[in-house]
Design brief:
Layout (H helix, E strand, L loop, with lengths): L28 H5 L14 H5 L4 H4 L1 E4 L3 E5 L9 E5 L11 H22 L3 E5 L16 E6 L6 H6 L8 H14 L1
Antiparallel strand pairs: 1-2, 2-3, 3-5, 4-5
Helix pairs in contact: 4-6
Length: 185
């Protein structure tokens, strides 16, 4: 290409110079990055996990409800189908769970794996909880266990280079698929 054949690159204020790279914008993540709506301390009133249980399942992205725990999609998922198993009771530390809560949390985790396998055939799972802010808990005041479906090659250049995760499905669609399969399981 000669100089005359090349498109003129015009710098616009606040936009920058076009560089032919495609961008996936994820502005919703700024709320997470800035810590908006995160509870402070052990305050139950500001806890999003406590607030969710009063909402409609579809609006709250709740996949299933048990007697002592519920399963809800993560608003900032690592992968499609990333859900959390959360006790209804506002408790921060795993040893603080009652025996019954511990059993139902484990059973919900097993069922979440079974349901995810039937809906999207993941090759594996990451399962775990971050206990305390220093350990990476985004909402440390209310215990929650992550169930993250994984596929071979699901971590590609996007998160490494672009600090972006590409999710091929909207959260509402994912919730509907998992909730239907949960009822059928």
């Amino acid at each position: 290409m000669t100089g005359a054949d090349q498109p003129e690159l015009v710098e616009q204020e606040g936009v920058g110079i076009p560089d032919a790279l495609q961008r996936l914008w994820t502005p919703h993540r700024m709320a997470y990055i800035r810590g908006q709506h995160k509870p402070v301390g052990d305050d139950v009133d500001g806890c999003p996990f406590c607030a969710l249980i009063a909402l409609d399942d579809a609006d709250a992205l709740i996949v299933a409800r048990g007697s002592l725990v519920y399963g809800v999609l993560n608003l900032y998922p690592y992968n499609p189908g990333h859900l959390m198993v959360v006790p209804y009771r506002h408790v921060a530390d795993y040893p603080e769970l009652t025996a019954a809560e511990t059993v139902e949390l484990a059973e919900f985790t097993q069922r979440a794996m079974t349901v995810a396998r039937s809906v999207s055939a993941p090759h594996g799972f990451n399962i775990g909880m971050n206990q305390g802010v220093i350990a990476g808990a985004g909402i440390a005041a209310h215990l929650h266990q992550h169930v993250v479906p994984r596929w071979g090659g699901d971590s590609n250049f996007m998160p490494v280079v672009g600090h972006t995760k590409v999710l091929p499905q909207l959260l509402g669609e994912t919730r509907a698929l998992l909730a239907k399969a949960w009822d059928e399981a």
